[in-house]
Write a structure and sequence with these properties.
The protein has 6 helices and 9 strands. It has about 220 residues and is an alpha+beta fold. It binds a DNA duplex (12 and 12 nucleotides) through helix 3, strand 2 and strand 6.
Length: about 220
DNA sequence: CAGTGATCATAT
DNA sequence: ATATGATCACTG
């Protein structure tokens, strides 16, 4: 799948996917559909990346570098409610003195997002899950402010050695949660007294209440 | 049963 | 180990 050259081309392709089931799309692209996602958690996301021509791989750059667009699938139930939080990026736990929100990875990644809702209740077989209507989002000033506030608070805690006091409930819209192979994984971090320690890697996630508001704005 | 913490596959 | 893609599953 060639990468789209313009935003219009990307959105056109995206609209063409709306209403298709994952089974139909997988068949078109020559993929087998897993029975469940327990061992293929990123399967749907990667299928949709391919269908839209996103640059493959796990490079630390937007899905569509030329367009500056980040693609996020958003699993929802039949009422349009998000089923899961949305992973944004890993959180830097060291070397973060005086980083500005505007320069942060979170801010960059969320500056332009193509949200692609996916009817994905667990009771629906994977192959029958239906692709929804994708929409482009840029945070408005209020959303930007909420994100920045949470980010600054979390980053200050991290920088001051408070990593182990942070739990998922901390932010209003943005949260910090484990992002690792398992609970034994370790990465460099800052201890209570400012000393180097090893800690569980974390990632930034958008809470479902936030992504639900984005859906409301887009569809009512 | 929502939300937090844990986990899975793959590429580099 | 760290980055990508996320969902699983236990707990209050």
């Amino acid at each position: 799948m060639k990468t789209p050259q313009t935003l219009d081309e990307l959105m056109l392709r995206c609209r063409a996917l709306a209403g298709l089931t994952l089974g139909q799309l997988a068949a078109e692209l020559g993929h087998q559909v897993p029975v469940h996602l327990k061992q293929d958690k990123g399967w749907a996301g990667q299928l949709l990346e391919q269908a839209l021509g996103a640059s493959a791989g796990s490079k630390a750059e937007p899905d569509f570098p030329e367009l500056g667009v980040e693609l996020k699938t958003l699993p929802i139930d039949q009422h349009g409610k998000p089923l899961e939080s949305t992973y944004v990026c890993v959180a830097p736990l060291t070397g973060i003195n005086q980083q500005l929100w505007q320069d942060s990875w979170v801010c960059q990644k969320l500056s332009l997002v193509l949200w692609l809702p996916l009817l994905a209740e667990r009771s629906i077989p994977v192959a029958e899950r239906v692709i929804g209507t994708g929409f482009l989002w840029q945070p408005d000033s209020k959303e930007q402010q909420l994100l920045q506030q949470d980010w600054e608070e979390l980053m200050e805690l991290i920088a001051l050695g408070g990593i182990d006091q942070i739990r998922g409930a901390h932010g209003q819209v943005l949260q910090l949660r484990p992002k690792a192979a398992n609970s034994k994984a370790l990465t460099a971090a800052i201890g209570e007294a400012g000393q180097p320690i090893q800690a569980l890697p974390r990632g930034f996630y958008l809470k479902t209440s936030f992504t639900q508001q984005l859906l409301r704005k887009a569809f009512g």
